[in-house]
């Protein structure tokens, strides 16, 4: 009998062999692509087990994509999910400047869209991607693909920040890093053992159209795995701990429900449902229940939030976007039009990255 670590790679190899033997249609293309994802997710799960074992054993050195370090710094993996150019790459470059040992970048770009390569720190950071469609489970798959690649790539990736091409940073890198890691973490072991390190994801149970979202595939389609009382909604963008990232990557049961087609587009936004529901069911105490990405839903249209124009960019806007209803401050904001880059760069050093 084939042992479990080799089962998925074996199935993947077999599927590719069949491509050259059997006739196939479009749905079979999806089947083979899904097998690729399963192999990727399986590898990521094994990677967590190995890194956890090393941390439990008290290892003082870690191997990262930059080499071996005796006292490694934990990293934030920035996951860019996009179907258009990364127009704000110059602003993000300024954000990352001087922090090369504390972050990694991964980009999932819709392969059916022609993108202008951003270059700089983004060069070579694209992961194998598949087509994404709004209001479909393809966005869930893309996020899971990014998480898996980042987990496999570097064991020092301890936080995973999912952002869009329309997101901008509204604080300095140092401000964000200090907030997430509390200025005290020194190893994978200490990170895993401290309950104060949470995932920052919006989890809501009191939305006005919550039932309509739950019943989008049919009134009983989510049963028995997800009851209405367990169903949650939230922002598409989040920051997850490594343990939660792997929880998402290895999960299968809920995914089989959320990948079901909806009966209509409205109000079907599975990317806003799957992650909050899963984490609420598995580890609600390990989540903040709020997002660190500010979005302005005033005057929204067709499910899209307000799009900031160049004329709206100002120091006052940045200061306003940082403010929340609690003690925390937002780290990112969306959506900004590509034309907003010039005025944003003009206030980057004196306002955006001055906390």
TrEMBL record:
Q: What is its main location?
A: membrane
According to its UniProt record, where is this protein located? Answer: Membrane
Tell me where the transmembrane regions lie: none
One of the record's GO cellular component terms:
membrane
- Pfam families (UniProt xref): Branch
Molecular-function annotations in GO: glycosyltransferase activity
Cross-referenced InterPro entries: BC10-like (IPR044174), Glyco_trans_14 (IPR003406)
Q: Which UniProt keywords apply?
A: Glycoprotein, Glycosyltransferase, Membrane, Signal, Transferase
**Signal sequence, renumbered to the chain:** 1-27
What topology in the membrane does the UniProt record assign? Single-pass type II membrane protein
Q: Tell me what this protein is called.
A: Core-2/I-branching beta-1,6-N-acetylglucosaminyltransferase family protein
Q: Which organism is it from?
A: Cucumis sativus
């Amino acid at each position: 009998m084939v042992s479990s670590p080799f089962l998925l790679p074996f199935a993947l190899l077999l599927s590719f062999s069949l491509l050259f033997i059997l006739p196939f249609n479009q749905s079979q293309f999806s089947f083979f692509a899904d097998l690729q994802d399963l192999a990727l997710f399986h590898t990521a799960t094994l990677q967590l087990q190995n890194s956890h074992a090393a941390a439990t054993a008290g290892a003082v050195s870690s191997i990262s994509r930059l080499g071996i370090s005796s006292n490694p710094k934990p990293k934030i993996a920035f996951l860019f999910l996009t179907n258009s150019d990364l127009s704000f790459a110059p602003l993000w470059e300024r954000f990352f400047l001087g922090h090369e040992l504390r972050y990694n970048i991964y980009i999932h770009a819709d392969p059916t869209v022609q993108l202008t390569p951003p270059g700089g720190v983004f060069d070579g950071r694209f992961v194998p991607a598949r087509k994404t469609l709004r209001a479909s489970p393809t966005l869930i798959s893309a996020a899971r693909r990014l998480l898996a690649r980042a987990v496999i790539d570097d064991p020092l990736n301890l936080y995973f920040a999912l952002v869009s091409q329309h997101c901008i940073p509204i604080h300095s890198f140092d401000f964000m890093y200090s907030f997430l890691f509390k200025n005290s973490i020194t190893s994978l072991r200490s990170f895993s053992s401290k309950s104060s390190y949470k995932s920052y994801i919006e989890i809501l149970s009191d939305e006005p159209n919550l039932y309509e979202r739950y019943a989008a595939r049919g009134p009983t389609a989510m049963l028995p795995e997800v009851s209405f009382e367990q169903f949650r909604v939230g922002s598409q963008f989040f920051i997850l701990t490594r343990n939660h990232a792997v929880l998402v990557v290895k999960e299968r049961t809920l995914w089989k429900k959320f990948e079901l087609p909806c009966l209509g587009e409205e109000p079907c936004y599975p990317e806003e449902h799957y992650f909050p529901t899963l984490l609420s069911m598995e580890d609600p105490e390990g989540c903040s229940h709020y997002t660190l990405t500010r979005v302005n839903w005033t005057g929204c249209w067709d499910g899209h939030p307000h799009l900031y124009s160049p004329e709206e960019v100002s120091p006052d806007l940045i200061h306003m976007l940082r403010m929340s209803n609690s003690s925390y401050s937002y780290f990112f904001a969306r959506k900004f039009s590509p034309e907003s880059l010039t005025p944003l760069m003009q206030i980057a050093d004196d306002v955006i990255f001055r906390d």
